[in-house]
From TrEMBL:
PANTHER family: CTP SYNTHASE, CTP SYNTHASE-RELATED. Mg(2+) binds at D74, E144. Keywords: ATP-binding, Glutamine amidotransferase, Ligase, Magnesium, Metal-binding, Nucleotide-binding, Pyrimidine biosynthesis. It catalyses: UTP + L-glutamine + ATP + H2O = CTP + L-glutamate + ADP + phosphate + 2 H(+); L-glutamine + H2O = L-glutamate + NH4(+); UTP + NH4(+) + ATP = CTP + ADP + phosphate + 2 H(+). Homotetramer. This is CTP synthase.
Length: 539
C-alpha cells in the first residue's frame, strides 16, 4: 500500500438507488480539478464474477473498459466525469473475491489453515481496495461499496472497510455515508430517523462515518442538520445536503457549493495542487441547458422498459447534443412493436434513428423494418453492434436479394450468413468474459463519412460481441453501395459500414458510446446529431 495515497470509502444507507456513483464521480471531479489524480472503484456484493452474464433487465447496461472488462454501469459515470479510463481493477464483485480465495485454497496457498470469511475473505477484499493505489499513480482512490449498509451480502465489505481504516492510518482514509432524508408530506417534515438508524448500523459494524451526504428533495434547515450531526456523531459542517438536481452533471457544482471537497481535503490533510478549474465543465452545462435547436431521435431496442440498459448511449447523446447546442429528445421504442404495417406510423416523427446493441432473436424483425425505413427514406441512421449487423442483413435481403440473409446467431441454418460467429468463438464452452472485448484498432477508409467524422485515419474503439460481418460477401456488398469504411488491420474484421448514397447511414461493430465523455463528446454521435438537424431542416 502506497502510504501517500488517500482512500475514501463511500457507503450507502436507507435505500438503494441514491446515486452513490454520481456522488463518487462528482467528488472525484472536484478533487481532479484541484490537481489530484483520482480513480474510483466499485465493489459489488453479488456472486457473479462480473456483470457480463447478467441480463440488462437485472442490472442495467454492462459497461466495457479499454482492457475488456465487463463492468457495472457506474464505471461509465466515472469515465464520463473524469475523462480518464478505468480498468478490470476498478470493479470487483463478491464472486471475484471468493473465486480468488478458493483458487488460492486449491493451490494450497493457505498452508493448511482453515479458510474463513475473516481474515481470508476480508484480506482479499483489502488487497483489492489497495491495488490501484500501490504504484503511486493516484493521490486519491475512491471506493464505492455497492448495496446498502445492513445487507447481509455487503457485511464482509463493510468489515474490510473497518479493518482498512486501521491499516491505512489516521488522516489517510475517510468514510462518506450517503443517505436519504425523506419528506413526509402529511407531517410537512423532513425525517432524520432512517439516517440515524442507518448510521447506527454502521457504528455497530465499527465504522464511524466522517461525512454524511444527505439526498433530499427540500433544503435541509439548520436544525435538521444539527439533529443529524448530534445523533450521528459527525461535525455539523460535515452534514452535506445533496438536493435533487436537474441533471447529474450539476452534481459536481452542487457538491462544490456544499464544500464537500473542502471537508474531504481538510480531513485527509490535503492541500490543492492547482487552482480549481471547472470552466470546461461549466461551458458544457451552459450549452446543454441553452440549446438553440432540437431534434427527436428514436432509439430502437428490446430492453427499452429499463433505460439504464442503454445508459452510455443516452449519455453520449447528452454530450454530443451539448456540443451541437441541440436538445435531443430521445424516444425509446421497442423493436417488438415494429412491423411492416406499424413502422411508418411509429417512426415518421423521428429526425434520426439509432438501432441499439443487443443479443438474441427477439425483436430482430422489427429492427430490420426500422433499418429499411431509414434507408429508403434518407433518415440519418446509426447502428451500434447488433444495430450494425442488422443494417447489413437488411441490405443483403432488400438490396442484394438474399431474402433469407441472417446472422447465424438468429438462424444457424441461414443460406446467406452475412453475419457469422467469429472463428475464435467457435469452440468456447464458457460464456463469461469470452466475447471479443475491449479496445481494438480500426483503420478508416479515406473520404468516408467515418473518416470525416473522426478527422484521422486510425482509431481505437471498444467491443463486446461474438459475431462479425462475413467477409465472403464484402465485394458484393460494396459494389451495391454499402462500403466497409472501417476495418481492423490485423484480423480484417469489418468495424464500420456506411451507405454511400445516403445522407448519413453508419453502422459500427464497436460501441462508440463507451468512450463518450463530457469533455470529449464522441465524433460519430456529434456527426449523427448534425445529420439529424439537417434532416429536420430539409423536411
Ligand atoms: N449479439 C451480437 C454479437 O454477439 C451483437 C452484440 C452487441 O450488440 N453487443 O455479435
Amino acid at each position: 500500500m502506497a502510504s501517500s495515497t488517500k482512500y475514501i470509502f463511500i457507503t450507502g444507507g436507507v435505500t438503494s438507488s441514491l446515486g452513490k456513483g454520481i456522488i463518487a464521480a462528482s467528488l472525484a471531479k472536484l478533487l481532479q480539478s484541484r490537481g489530484f489524480s483520482v480513480t474510483i472503484q466499485k465493489f459489488d456484493p453479488y456472486l457473479n464474477i462480473d456483470p457480463g452474464t447478467l441480463n440488462p433487465y437485472e442490472h442495467g447496461e454492462c459497461y466495457v473498459t479499454e482492457d475488456g472488462a465487463e463492468t457495472d454501469l457506474d464505471l461509465g459515470h466515472y469515465e464520463r466525469f473524469l475523462n480518464t479510463p478505468t480498468s478490470q481493477d476498478n470493479n470487483v464483485t463478491t464472486g471475484r473475491i471468493y473465486n480468488n480465495v478458493i483458487t488460492k485454497e486449491r493451490k494450497g496457498e493457505y498452508l493448511g489453515k482453515t479458510v474463513q470469511v475473516i481474515p481470508h475473505i476480508t484480506d482479499e477484499i483489502k488487497r483489492n481496495f489497495f491495488k490501484l493505489g500501490e504504484d503511486g499513480k493516484y493521490d486519491v482512490v475512491i471506493t464505492e461499496i455497492g448495496g446498502c449498509v445492513g445487507d447481509i451480502e455487503s457485511l464482509p465489505f463493510i468489515e474490510a472497510v473497518r479493518q482498512a481504516k486501521w491499516d491505512i492510518g489516521a488522516n489517510n482514509s475517510l468514510v462518506i455515508h450517503l443517505t436519504l432524508i425523506p419528506y413526509l408530506a402529511a407531517a410537512k417534515e423532513l425525517k432524520t430517523k432512517p439516517t440515524q438508524h442507518s448510521v447506527k448500523q454502521l457504528l455497530e459494524a465499527g465504522i464511524q462515518p466522517d461525512i454524511l451526504v444527505c439526498r433530499t428533495e427540500y433544503h435541509l434547515p439548520q436544525e435538521v442538520k444539527k439533529k443529524l450531526a448530534l445523533f450521528c456523531n459527525v461535525q455539523l459542517n460535515c452534514v452535506i445536503e445533496a438536493m435533487d438536481a436537474e441533471t447529474i452533471y450539476d452534481v459536481p457544482l452542487l457538491m462544490k457549493k456544499e464544500k464537500l471537497d473542502e471537508r474531504v481535503m481538510s480531513k485527509l490533510k490535503l492541500t490543492s495542487k492547482s487552482n480549481t478549474d471547472l470552466e470546461q465543465w461549466k461551458d458544457f452545462l451552459g450549452r446543454f441547458k441553452n440549446p438553440t435547436q432540437e431534434v427527436t431521435i428514436g432509439l430502437i431496442g428490446k430492453y427499452v422498459s429499463l433505460p439504464d440498459s442503454y445508459k452510455s448511449i443516452i449519455e453520449a447523446f447528452v454530450h454530443a447534443g451539448a456540443a451541437c447546442e441541440c436538445k435531443v429528445h430521445l424516444k425509446l421504442i421497442s423493436s417488438e412493436e415494429l412491423h411492416p404495417e406499424t413502422v411508418e406510423k411509429k417512426l415518421e416523427e423521428l429526425d434520426g434513428i439509432l438501432v441499439a446493441p443487443g443479443f438474441g432473436e427477439r425483436g430482430l424483425e422489427g429492427k430490420i423494418e426500422t433499418v429499411k425505413f431509414a434507408r429508403e427514406n434518407n433518415i440519418p441512421f446509426f447502428g451500434i453492434c447488433l444495430g450494425m449487423q442488422v443494417a447489413v442483413i437488411e441490405f443483403a435481403r432488400n438490396v442484394l436479394g438474399h431474402v433469407k440473409a441472417n446472422s447465424t446467431e438468429m438462424d444457424a441454418e441461414t443460406p446467406s450468413p452475412f453475419i457469422a460467429l467469429m472463428e475464435e468463438q467457435k469452440n468456447l464452452e464458457q460464456m463469461g468474459g469470452t466475447m471479443r472485448l475491449g479496445s481494438y484498432s480500426c483503420d478508416l477508409k479515406k473520404g468516408s463519412k467515418a473518416a470525416q467524422a473522426y478527422g484521422k485515419p486510425k482509431v481505437q474503439e471498444r467491443h463486446r460481441h461474438r459475431y462479425e460481418f462475413n467477409n465472403k460477401y464484402l465485394e458484393e456488398m460494396e459494389s451495391a453501395g454499402m462500403i466497409a469504411s472501417g476495418i481492423n488491420p490485423d484480423s480484417k474484421l469489418v468495424e464500420i459500414i456506411e451507405i454511400k448514397n445516403h445522407p448519413w447511414f453508419i453502422g459500427t461493430q464497436f460501441h462508440p458510446e463507451y468512450k463518450s465523455t463530457v469533455l470529449n463528446p464522441h465524433p460519430l454521435f456529434v456527426k449523427f446529431i448534425s445529420a439529424t438537424i439537417d434532416n429536420k431542416k430539409n423536411k
